[in-house]
């Protein structure tokens, strides 16, 4: 399947909610997201890597408007677990390369990551699907990131929000 | 935007490639994926959470056919970093709920995660986009996962590969 990169999207209005030391057993992720759903919090990226030592780190992003409610919703559920801490980051930018056929192509990831690295932007989170590679970066670098990503894929102007 | 869950997809032929202690600075992710691209390795999920203490953990999934080449490609680049270890997991199943409008809905994540938890399936990786929530789980539970995910969203038969 051929890769077609269609555009770059930038959202400058998000923060990370990072949960560390979540008990790595069936049910913990479910309860976190049920609490968030009950609190009407809209979640964008969800990134969880494999657990070690019986605990896992789970990070998700929300719009700034939802940050306070997200932290409270997570805080109350992890209290019941007896393990876990939640923290809200400074504002981040979510930068996404959108296309088709990207799933099988390490080359698209390599191109995006290289473009960011060459301008000194550190990648904080990575999440991918067949149609989108998303990274979270420092919001202060959002415009640079959009520019170098567009150049990397020979695209026109980006839509920043 | 209304959520419409269209289906569940299951891939039973993947493994996780987990890189721990990757130097958390611009360029490390780029070099890893450039090496993978050069080795013609197709990558599916990429999950990287925020770094702590100057290092980060990055995990991606590949088809079983690509596992050996993936490990060698990653091994050679992390040698140059002087930090980082790579390991290949046992076979995992990637279970995805596919739909539209899912990005803003913690409820869809909650429903999937709850369905898995209620049958005792542990979630190892999570990666999301507007059209897909994907988790990596033990391959031995793949059929159970497909079944409970279908029930959770009132869907028909799944396509398992
Ligand atoms: C950490 C969390 O994802 C846990 N493994 C669960 O299945 O809920
Ligand atoms: C860990 C890795 O993602 C690093 N932060 C980078 O930007 O390449």
What does this 3D model show about the protein?
Two copies of one chain form a homodimer. The first copy, chain A, is of the alpha+beta class and 161 residues long. Chain A has helices at 28-38, 67-81, 106-118, 142-152, and strands spanning 4-23, 43-48, 55-63, 85-100, 125-128, 132-138, 159-160. In chain A, strands 1, 2, 3, 4, 5, 6 and 7 form a seven-stranded mixed β-sheet that branches. In chain A, a hairpin with a 3-residue loop joins strand 5 and strand 6. The longest helix of chain A has 15 residues, at 67-81. Chain A is elongated. The mean pLDDT of chain A is 92. Chains A and B meet through helix 1, strand 2, strand 3, helix 3 and strand 5 of A and helix 1, strand 2, strand 3, helix 3 and strand 5 of B. Strand 5 of chain A pairs antiparallel with strand 2 (43-48) of chain B, so a sheet runs across the interface. The complex binds threonine (2 copies).
């Amino acid at each position: 399947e051929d890769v077609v990169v269609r555009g770059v999207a930038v959202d400058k209005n998000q923060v990370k909610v990072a949960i560390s030391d979540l008990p790595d057993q069936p049910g913990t992720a479910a309860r976190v997201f049920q609490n968030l759903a009950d609190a009407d919090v809209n979640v964008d990226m969800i990134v969880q890597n494999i657990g070690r030592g019986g605990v896992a780190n789970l990070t998700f992003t929300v719009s700034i408007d939802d940050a306070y409610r997200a932290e409270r919703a997570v805080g109350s559920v992890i209290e019941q677990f007896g393990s876990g801490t939640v923290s809200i980051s400074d504002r981040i930018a979510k930068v996404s390369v959108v296309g088709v056929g990207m799933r099988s192509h390490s080359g698209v990831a390599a191109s995006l990551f290289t473009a960011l690295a060459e301008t000194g932007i550190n990648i904080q989170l990575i999440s991918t699907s067949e149609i989108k590679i998303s990274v979270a970066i420092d919001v202060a670098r959002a415009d640079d990131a959009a520019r170098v990503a567009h150049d990397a894929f020979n695209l026109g102007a980006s839509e920043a929000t």
